[in-house]
TrEMBL record:
CDD domains: ABC_6TM_LmrA_like. It comes from Streptomyces actuosus. This is ABC transporter ATP-binding protein. Pfam families: ABC_membrane, ABC_tran. It is a multi-pass membrane protein.
Length: 624
């Protein structure tokens, strides 16, 4: 996959691993080709920067020749100030062109990183939900931040340094050969030894760099997990244990970084010793040749200047080779993320659902069917099914309650209705149309969800309420504030609707966060409102108020609610009892008490009881 195609989203690979051709093997040549593909769309800047760099280098190469003439002219008593002025002008112009070229490269590097980050962010926000079950959020975030930063240095420096450094080194070598071929052979022997050392270290640098990036990603993932559950960490006095676990990640990153530094520390002195050794050889041998009248002092000075001038381009070439290998380690992680499968934007008709769906008998409540499940089967793991044949309908202006033990599949029904996952068999329908005939966006426009983990993000109260409808008017926002009984909260907070609620809504209570989520859902005016035990964090007064809200909302849309409290169930128009992934029974409260042993057991065991949360170890939230 090329850099451009990766950003735009290429075909998904199995398990998100990059294809063999994408990484281009482990050779430096293949790595350079891969890095070069990342610069698609920035080739003009690269060409201009390369040209400026070469012009500056050419001016630099001319300086030793001018210095040679200065020495020779001075030895013959000639006027040298014009040559000195020319030498100064060459130096100033070289510095100016070098600075302009470096700016263009840095800007190009930032542009490549921007392009990669846009592609990564856009892809990570659209991944299939199964991918989030297999990849840690902190590690994915690290690929957007740390890994792209490594690539910026590669594309903004290493690529051009390889080209310009090689050309400048070649030019210096040609001029040195013109001045003294024998001395050049001595220099070439020492440089070849350094090149052999560098080549032997490149693979190790790449592997160590990739290990370091993986360690940094794991560190970010562990830290994100601990900070996201900080109240739990502190209540259970687990700060030291978490610090030790995250510290192990720090040590792993440190070890990988030290290994990278060790290899780089061997490479740099090898280059420096080769250059310094060649300089000393030139100084001694060249000095003897001048004494024997085999060459002029000006030639020796020029050759020495070219030998020292060779240091920078050779060092930049060797350094660039190491950077390219480090960049490949980061690029493999980035490309792995870019190849993870995303949610399709077009309807995805499954072979199993290609037939015309069987007619679904509507419930007794008036109005057409808003949401229906027909013999739906699903499992997060194919070997462990969660739903084994769920069928029920929710009509417009009808409130349907889902009840059952933990693990019965209630939350999974919500996940399928929200198109987070696709059923393995059976049909989910909105307004009589199978979801396979609708895009996920079209399905999600019909629903709003309020779950127990009420998501409140950093920002103002207004931002959180209008998250799904950022263009909502003040009147529309005020309407849902009143419906969700948030008036007192708005009055209490300094700034009212414009008050900042803190990270994860830290300035709000659990019940207030849930009411914010209710207001956000109501603002969207959904066709189907999905409520996951909406009264679990509310006191009796606010619970009664929310039940009144649910009745009022039920006059506008269909309501499907996961319920544990008897007060919620009793007011439902229809109740569906789930057991081990199947529809066990359905009807009204009184009917189920009379005909459903499971429903009677749930009520008798206080699974459904007035004004209480689930008891005996049942945990609100995801129930299967």
């Amino acid at each position: 996959m090329t850099g451009a195609s990766a950003v735009n989203g290429g075909p998904a690979a199995v398990n998100g691993s990059p294809a063999a051709g994408a990484t281009g093997g482990t050779s430096t040549r293949a790595a350079v080709a891969t890095m070069y593909r990342l610069t698609a769309g920035h080739r003009g800047a690269i060409a201009a920067a390369t040209a400026l760099t070469l012009v500056g280098s050419a001016l630099g190469l001319a300086q030793p020749l001018v210095a040679k003439h200065v020495v020779d002219a001075s030895g013959h008593g000639q006027v040298i100030w014009p040559l000195l002025a020319l030498l100064g002008a060459l130096f100033v112009v070289e510095a100016a062109t070098g600075a302009a070229g470096r700016f263009l490269l840095e800007r190009m590097g930032e542009g490549v990183v921007r392009q990669l980050r846009h592609g990564l962010v856009g892809r990570l926000l659209r991944l299939e939900m199964r991918e989030y079950d297999q990849h840690r959020a902190g590690d994915l975030i690290s690929r957007v931040t740390a890994d792209t930063t490594v690539l910026r240095e590669v594309v903004s420096q290493a690529l051009v340094d390889l080209v310009t450094g090689s050309i400048v080194a070649a030019g210096a070598i040609v001029l040195m050969a013109w001045l003294d071929p024998l001395l050049l052979l001595l220099v070439a022997a020492t440089v070849a030894a350094a090149a052999f050392v560098v080549a032997s270290l490149l693979t190790g640098i790449r592997n160590a760099s990739e290990h370091m990036q993986n360690s940094v990603g794991a560190l970010a993932a562990d830290l994100e997990r601990a900070l996201g559950a900080l109240p739990m960490v502190r209540v259970h006095r687990a700060e030291e244990r978490e610090a030790a676990g995250i510290g192990a990640r720090v040590e792993a990153a440190y070890g990988a970084g030290v290994r990278t530094a060790k290899l780089a520390s061997v490479m740099s002195p090898a280059v420096e010793l080769a250059v310094q050794g060649s300089f000393l050889i030139v100084l001694v041998v060249g000095g003897l040749r001048v004494d024997n009248h085999a060459g002029s002092l000006g030639d020796l000075v020029a050759f020495l200047l070219y030998a020292s001038f060779l240091v920078l381009p050779l060092s930049s070439v060797f350094r660039a080779m190491g950077l390219v290998q480090r960049g490949m380690g980061a690029y493999q992680r980035i490309e792995g993320a870019l190849r993870l499968p995303v949610e399709p934007t077009a309807p995805q008709t499954r072979q199993a659902a290609a037939h015309t769906p069987l007619p679904v008998r509507p419930s007794t409540a008036p109005g057409r069917v808003a949401l229906a499940l027909h013999d739906v089967r699903f499992g997060y793991d194919t070997q462990r099914p969660v739903l084994r044949g769920i069928s029920f309908t929710v009509a417009h202006r009808q409130q349907v309650a889902l009840v059952g033990r933990s693990g019965a599949g209630k939350s999974t029904v919500f996940a399928l209705a929200a198109r987070f996952y696709e059923p393995d068999a059976g049909t989910v329908l909105f307004d009589g149309r199978p979801t396979t005939e609708l895009t996920r966006d079209a399905c999600r426009r019909r629903i709003a969800v309020v779950d127990q983990n009420s998501h409140v993000v950093h920002g103002t109260l207004r931002d959180n309420i209008a998250y799904g409808m950022p263009g909502a008017t003040e009147a529309e926002i005020r309407r849902v504030v009143e419906l969700a009984r948030l008036d007192e909260v708005v009055d209490r907070l300094p700034g009212g609707l414009d008050a900042v609620v803190g990270e994860r809504g830290s300035t709000l209570s659990g019940g207030e966060r849930q009411r914010v989520a209710v207001a956000r859902a109501l603002l969207a005016r959904p066709s189907v409102l999905l409520l996951d035990e909406p009264t679990s964090h509310l006191d009796a007064i606010n619970e009664a108020a929310l039940i009144g809200v649910m009745k009022e909302v039920g006059q506008e849309c269909a309501v499907l609610v996961i319920a544990h409290r008897l007060s919620t169930v009793q007011h439902a128009d229809h109740i569906v009892v789930l057991h081990e992934g199947r529809t066990e029974a359905a009807g009204r409260h009184e009917e189920l008490l009379a005909c459903s042993p499971l429903y009677r057991e749930l009520a008798a065991s206080q699974m459904l009881r007035p004004g209480a949360t689930p008891a005996h170890g049942t945990v609100p939230g995801r129930t299967g």
